[in-house]
Amino acid sequence: MELRNWQQEVIDSFPATIEKYRRFILKAPTGAGKTVLASELIERFYKKKKVVVLCHRLVLLEQLESALSKRHRVHKLTLSDKSAAFEDYNILLSTNLRARAILDEAVPQADLIIVDEAHRVSPNGNSYKQIIDLFVEHGKTDAQFIGLTASPERRTADQRDQLNLAFDAIIDCANIEELIEEGVLVKPVYRPHFVHDLDLSKLDIASGDFPVSKLSTSIINSSMIDCAIWSYMEEREKARPKSISAWFCPDISVAEFTLERIREKDIKGEIVTAGTPIKERMKLLKQHESGELEAMVSVGVLTEGWDNPHCNIIVHLRPTLSKVLWGQSVGRGLRAAPDKDKCVVIDVSSNWSTFGPVEKLKWNLWSNRGSHLQYMNRFNWIGLQQDGENDDKTYLLCKNELASGLRCSLIYKKGEYENDTCPACGTYAAVDIYKEQKLENTLNEKGLHRLFFERVPKAFERMDLSTWRTIGDTTWKTATDKEKVFLSFCIAFSEVTGDETNSETEYWDAALAAEIHIRTYLVKNDFTIKKQESFDLSIIADGMITGRIVRPLQTHYGISLCGLAFEEATDAERERKYQKAIRVAERLAVLGCSNRDTLPYFNARDIKV
């Protein structure tokens, strides 16, 4: 079998990888060929050995069975299965909850366990946790536990439910932009609209995302679906060779309303949901792939394990606070196919302006309480792009009212079209989003970065270090809650390593080591940090300039710590220390710190005071 470049690189380095790690994730984009890679790994390194392949959905199970049975003896576990593990076969396929007795027998015997869509692995849940514990405690010492996913991040604030606790390492295998250059994937072309009458501000997001029932009501009562249909009809005319689309909806009510509007345009479409019987679902998906069905409207089932390379338009009708959901759904349209050179992404959910293009997404192996709150600002990503110095990253919002009564609402980049006229409606009725939404009032990381690297060396140069080296305890004792956040950042910058890291795991190992150091110091000295609702970058900026929040004592002590670290580090090391220090300060702010903390990596009771 001819392998893609990234697959061959993983194969070539695999002996060294398993020498170093026992449990790890192979991260590669949707459509990159992770299932092919899994089959090839088994063929080359585990032939005739015992392998367990797990996934969470039946449709994924069917696909894995089809791919792996071509070269291996495969058995798909059923709910009523009572056979012995690995009886007359060497690969066992199962969801993580099927025939548990057989899985409990198979895991200790397995030479390899593969978990598809590994971002769903919960080290603290009821299903995968038992398998992980069984593997760790009773698995073969030379066996491997490998996860496959495009988005290694879990949407949870529970510190006992983070991917780093299930896997020893995350190995970056390929990224979307590289695969587009190689022709494995096609480029996404975004058509984002901000629907002005979709009001999400009053929805309770305590669960970490918009509640589906209330979200659906807001969508149906807005012009969102009309805007999607109008945009789709325009893009449909330009699609080559013909339009084959996937529509992502939050629930069945939105899906049915959308399908009704699609059919009014004489477009053939159907709905698939988690409740659609598997045989019917497979039949519909086959009709969609052949082009017999132009539009497939989905409720929660096409974001994972669905492969139709001919799909060339994605319509996103589900506002979310989850970049995993955003990335997974858009990724489904990026597979390459004959005569397909792009995938148009029509986003009327403001997910593009919130998270940015999927090819630019960054993943975090550790999340914290309130980590989703930044995405309540549906212009979050646009705000992060603006530097206030030029027009290169200025985005405009078209407010032109169309003949139908709809607002155009397209978001487009300033300077890319003649006279900045809207490419969708051909008029100029636009506003500068950055100015209109007053995004400059919220300090972004670019602004803080510039301030920090300008301010610290200048202020440190004028300092008498003999004064500031001995007052650390006094500084903390008198600090307010917000000043403690500032001091946490400064200590983190001082303590965290500036060494280069080669993976997400190494990055977080380094960051958490600094966090443990700070927590140990605070607990030993009976200092606490009160949990805060969110991490405010302006607090750190205020401390850099002795502003209204951080007082001179705390400012000067913090800058003295940063300045010493500045002198001892190279430019590259300073940059790496800064990036990690921001993440550490954020975690300490939103998780807090006290002598009662029991985190997976830190137990305050173990600290001798």
Provide a concise account of the structure shown.
The chain is α/β, with parallel strands linked by helices.
Q: Output mean pLDDT.
A: 90
Q: Rg to the nearest angstrom?
A: 26 Å
What is the overall silhouette? globular
Bin the helical content: 40-55%
Number of strands: 18
Q: Pairing-aware structural class of the strands and helices?
A: alpha/beta
Major sheet description: 7 strands, parallel
Number of H/I helices:
22
| Strand order of the biggest β-sheet | 3-4-2-5-6-1-7
Oligomer: single chain
Termini gap: 61 Å
Percent of residues in β-strands = 5-15%
Which stretches of 5+ consecutive residues score pLDDT under 50? none
Structure description:
With 609 residues, the protein is an alpha/beta fold. Helix content is 41%, strand content 13%. The strands form four sheets. A seven-stranded parallel beta sheet has the order 3-4-2-5-6-1-7, with helices on both faces. A six-stranded parallel beta sheet has the order 8-13-12-9-11-10, sandwiched between helices. Strand 17 (598-599) and strand 18 (602-603) form a beta hairpin. Helix 1 (5-20) crosses helix 2, helix 15 packs parallel to helix 20 and helix 18 crosses helix 19 (504-524). The longest helix is centred in the C-terminal third of the chain and has 21 residues, at 504-524.
Describe the protein's topology:
Blueprint (H helix, E strand, L loop, with lengths): L4 H16 L2 E5 L6 H12 L5 E5 L2 H11 L5 E3 L14 E5 L4 H10 L2 E5 L11 H11 L5 E6 L19 E4 L3 H7 L4 E6 L19 H9 L3 H15 L6 E4 L3 H13 L4 E5 L4 H13 L4 E5 L13 E4 L6 H9 L10 E6 L3 H5 L24 H6 L9 E4 L12 E3 L16 E3 H4 L8 H17 L3 H4 L3 H6 L3 H15 L8 H21 L12 H8 L7 H17 L2 H21 L6 E2 L2 E2 L6
Parallel strand pairs: 1-6, 1-7, 2-4, 2-5, 3-4, 5-6, 8-13, 9-11, 9-12, 10-11, 12-13
Antiparallel strand pairs: 14-15, 14-16, 17-18
